[in-house]
Design a protein that fits this description.
By secondary structure, this protein is mainly alpha-helical. It contains 11 helices and 3 strands, in the order H-H-E-H-H-E-E-H-H-H-H-H-H-H. Strand 2 and strand 3 form a beta hairpin. It is elongated and about 55 Å long.
């Protein structure tokens, strides 16, 4: 449990001394350690919260998470919901040996990221897009699935997709020429981070409520 008043966070010395890690890598690790359970050393902060506490944008935060996992300081697994579970610290970051079972989740090893099909997330995102734009886009579309899965693997959450949708509906919805771009191919493509930043700015300015 986080303690804002008088609490402290333990950081392994090897993290601070590892010259392969950047300054941002070490700050992101500190944020994950802050959220980690004292016993299992697991945490599930959203990427938005990690970025906020580390004072970085999404791309460097995602790169730092990859670096920390590459060098064995954390391990990530996909939760059954929409967020990522982080195993923090070298003691728990090493995955179970192949053929062995994890004790988490009733002894069933968590699904590998590449094998996770994101069916629940796809449906929730498309349902929200359709409700906000009065459309009928299908979560079974191969193009839409590819785009959504690519962005989810980059670290976007379902809440991040909803923020993009809400922000761009507010931005383009009343303009007939732009409203046609309120579609998966545009919103969830390679410029999605730009649209996310527009949404984050709108929330900060108070012109858009959080989703």
């Amino acid at each position: 449990m986080l303690d804002d008043d008088g609490g402290f966070t333990i950081i392994e010395n090897k993290v601070l001394l590892d010259e392969r890690l950047t300054r941002i890598d070490k700050i992101v690790y500190a944020v994950l350690a802050l959220h980690a359970d004292n016993n299992k050393r697991t945490a599930y902060p959203s990427l938005t919260r990690i970025c906020k506490l580390a004072s970085v944008t999404r791309k460097p935060a995602i790169q730092s998470i990859r670096n920390l996992e590459k060098y064995g300081y954390i391990r990530t697994t996909k939760r059954s919901g929409t967020s990522t579970l982080y195993h923090v610290g070298t003691r728990v970051a090493t995955p179970p040996r192949e053929g062995s079972q994890s004790t988490e989740g009733g002894g069933v090893a968590p699904p590998k990221l590449d094998s996770y099909n994101y069916t629940k997330e796809l449906k929730e995102i498309l349902d929200y897009l359709n409700s906000e734009t009065d459309s009928s886009y299908s979560s079974k579309s191969a193009v839409t699935q590819r785009l959504v899965k690519a962005r989810l693997k980059e670290g976007f959450t379902v809440e991040g997709f909803k923020l993009v949708i809400s922000a761009m509906v507010q931005e383009w919805g009343k303009d007939p020429k732009m409203a046609m771009y309120l579609r998966p191919q545009t919103l969830f493509g390679t410029k999605m981070e730009n649209y996310f930043e527009i949404g984050a700015k709108k929330i900060k300015e108070g012109s858009l409520n959080g989703v």
